[in-house]
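Can't paste images in this forum, so I'm doing it all in text. The chain is below; anyone willing to post the predicted structure tokens underneath?
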Amino acid sequence: MSTAGKVLAVLVMLVLVVWIVLGSGVSRLNTNGNEALHKLSEEVEKLRAQVDQTQIDVAQLHDQSATIQEKIDHDLTVLRDRQIELQRSHSQIFDSLERYKYQLATVEESVKSAQALLQHRNNERDAEQKALADTRSEVKTLMADSSQMMNQLDNLRKSFLSTYHKNIENLGRH
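Text version of the structure:
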């Protein structure tokens, strides 16, 4: 195997290792992102259920008599505090979701760039293999031409020697 072939083999192995590491990293990021998204979705559903329950409680308190209006005002204040906390939680969840979307976009961009790089490397490898095949074909053609020319040279040498010896014999007779 030529040095270029060995270097190409090593490069292919290195790219394969890098590809595997990138693939496992992307898989881990996707798994972590999906788990976090699932948890956030469940938490949003819980928060929505809590908001719905809070709204029902407020409606029931409004329907009661004026004698408990003071208690309603107190409960309403408590519910507003709770709603603010829920809105804060909702804002935090929304911010987290936006961060995960950004991270996902970053990972997808990395994957696209890795795929483009892999395609480029594959194209380079294919071009080198074609060039190697063309060079080998040219070498075979040159070897065939060389063999043919060597045969022709041997025939010319034999013809020359034969003519040379005949000429020496002819000179010796005269």
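The chain has one domain: 3-167. The CA atoms of residues 53 and 107 lie 39 Å apart.
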